[in-house]
Amino acid sequence: MAYILQSNSLSSKDAFVGLLRRPTAWFVSLFTLWWILLGVFYAFPDIDIWTAQAFFRESGCALGSADLRICGYFPAAREPVLIFVRKFYFYIPIAAGIVIILLMIRNFQHHGSTYDSARTKRYSVALLSSILGPYLLVNLILKTISGRPRPYETDLFGGTHAFASAGTLDGSCLSNCSFISGEAAGAGWLACLVVLLPPRLRIFLAPPILMLCLVSPYLRVAFGGHYLSDVTLGFLSSCVVYAAVAVYYETQEEKNRWSKTAL
């Protein structure tokens, strides 16, 4: 009886681990989480305001600006070291993309038994998700249509625009808007690259890599360039897109496998 219970426990554990390895499970979970968080930020906009206020320093208004209800600035945005760190992180996703392209070219130089098709697939997922996620979805679509002013542009933090909640799509911003953060989306894509590491190294390298990837979203909030919802949903959006692209490639592999075995 004990043996049967142990066997069932092991099989259940193996099934759970196998499920976690499936891109579909990751996509459904991350996609659902994204919408849940959007709903939370939309329903409780004070979360964004309180977070931004933690980095904002109020000061007296200049002459001729009496129409502004609040005047001040974000001190972190004036720190040369933090500005340099922000610029450094801005170019890391670009450098990572170039490295992946070079690795793919190197892999294509192999033929026959030395060619690794699985590696090509992993590189393709990474590159395609970077184009569809941070570039297309975030910078070309959402940041164009969202209409959400950045914190420093609103009258709550020294600007002139009215505050707009996450996901409202009716703010006064006309271009390069706050929802969602492109740099946070790039950081989220970088975090996904952990899957390119050898499995034995992921458990050790994943935590520090994730922590480093959170620096850029943190700075965007500290600079008053984005709200907490912008960076959270921006970071997570790349993870959703990465998982979606992985699902697509897995589906294509299964179709090819079925067509080869079908009579």
UniProtKB/TrEMBL annotation:
<feature type="transmembrane region" description="Helical">
    <location>
        <begin position="231"/>
        <end position="249"/>
    </location>
</feature>
<keyword id="KW-0812">Transmembrane</keyword>
<dbReference type="Pfam" id="PF01569">
    <property type="entry name" value="PAP2"/>
</dbReference>
<protein>
    <submittedName>
        <fullName>Phosphatase PAP2 family protein</fullName>
    </submittedName>
</protein>
<keyword id="KW-0472">Membrane</keyword>
<feature type="transmembrane region" description="Helical">
    <location>
        <begin position="25"/>
        <end position="44"/>
    </location>
</feature>
<feature type="domain" description="Phosphatidic acid phosphatase type 2/haloperoxidase">
    <location>
        <begin position="126"/>
        <end position="251"/>
    </location>
</feature>
<dbReference type="InterPro" id="IPR000326">
    <property type="entry name" value="PAP2/HPO"/>
</dbReference>
<dbReference type="InterPro" id="IPR036938">
    <property type="entry name" value="PAP2/HPO_sf"/>
</dbReference>
<keyword id="KW-1133">Transmembrane helix</keyword>
<feature type="transmembrane region" description="Helical">
    <location>
        <begin position="201"/>
        <end position="219"/>
    </location>
</feature>
<feature type="transmembrane region" description="Helical">
    <location>
        <begin position="125"/>
        <end position="142"/>
    </location>
</feature>
<feature type="transmembrane region" description="Helical">
    <location>
        <begin position="88"/>
        <end position="105"/>
    </location>
</feature>
